[in-house]
Design a protein that fits this description.
Mean pLDDT: 92
Oligomer: single chain
Structural class: mainly alpha
Low-confidence stretches: none
Number of helices: 19
């Protein structure tokens, strides 16, 4: 390749940054900027190195000076907002976000940055708002549409989620985990046969991913088909031996069969894989309670409630705790 290629220097700088060799990264990105100072991504990358070497104020100061060269640029303004957020300057972050909205710039580019900064502040309503705005102008942006559908899925707004998953399916039905999410919605809304159909399709399209097998395992448990459920969870483990969901599924399978000791062992393995998942503590609480291990059950239930204080299961769990005392 051309040894003077600015793109080559940029890529080298990114490699050095990945390895936290900041001075080397700074050297190569400076060479890229010298060749083509008009590429704003080089300049914002330089700011990223300044942030690592000298802190937030230096990075923001550098980007503010760039506004003279790149006026009313949402890419640049969005980067400044991100550094404000990183440094805890929330008032400045919010003001920069307001300024972004006022910029006379192609709306799709602006929407993307507003989505990004809204994600930083966990402002889901704004993420939805700006993603819907983006999709009006770019309906074929599958990544944005999938992200929007997942938000609705997490909010249990399944009709809205299914609408957007359906739009993705029209354009690319092999999109990763698309059929998995559709199957999940059908399972959650009680349409088990449709859930089974889409879970099978997910497995056929993505046999090297665990998700479809886990979902089939759940469906078989609902149908009290223990052997088939066990088979699917073990297929998930053959794809990913550290699959948290497979361990949870197998643990629940043994729980349903009344095999509490085996269930407890599997839940503990799941806990080791993902100690921050609240559901594993709720399930452990149930197993300990049925095994007569009151102290362990109370502790597990309390950990669950500390993670999910507004859980709809709280009254039931608190009644268990009171009965176990």
């Amino acid at each position: 390749e051309n040894p003077l290629s600015d793109d080559l220097y940029y890529r080298l700088a990114k490699v050095f940054l990945d390895f936290k060799k900041f001075n080397e990264a700074k050297k190569f990105i400076s060479q890229a900027i010298e060749i083509d100072p008009s590429k704003i991504e080089y300049r914002t990358f330089y700011a990223e190195i300044l942030y690592e070497l000298d802190g937030t104020d230096t990075a923001i100061g550098y980007l503010r000076k760039l506004e003279e060269e790149f006026p009313q640029n949402p890419y640049l303004h969005g980067e400044i907002a991100i550094y404000y957020f990183k440094s805890g300057q929330i008032k400045d972050f919010e003001q920069t976000k307001v300024d972004l909205e006022k910029m006379a710039y192609p709306r799709t580019n602006l929407s993307r940055y507003l989505i990004r900064v809204s994600n930083l502040s966990n402002n889901t309503n704004d993420v939805i708002k700006y993603t819907e705005e983006l999709l009006i102008n770019e309906p074929g942006d599958l990544e944005a549409r999938m992200n929007l559908a997942k938000i609705f899925y997490d909010q249990e707004k399944y009709t809205d989620a299914l609408k957007h998953f359906g739009e993705v399916k029209k354009l690319l039905d092999s999109y990763p985990k698309l059929l998995y999410y559709i199957a999940r919605i059908y399972l959650k809304t009680g349409e088990v046969e449709k859930a089974y159909e889409y879970a099978q399709k997910e497995v056929s399209l993505n046999p090297s991913l665990e998700d479809g097998y886990v979902l089939l395992g759940e469906i078989y448990i609902l149908q009290s088909k223990w052997v088939e459920a066990d088979r699917e969870y073990k297929r998930a483990q053959s794809v990913n031996k550290y699959s948290f969901d497979a361990y949870m599924g197998l643990a629940y399978l043994h729980f349903k069969k009344g095999q509490l000791s085996e269930s407890l062992s599997l839940y503990k393995q799941a806990q080791t894989l993902n100690p921050n998942n609240p559901e594993v503590y709720r399930q452990l609480g149930d197993v300990y309670r049925l095994l007569g291990l009151s102290v362990d059950a109370i502790e597990s239930y309390r950990v669950f409630l500390s993670h999910v204080p507004d859980s709809s299961q709280r009254p039931q769990i608190e009644s268990y705790i009171n009965a176990l005392k």
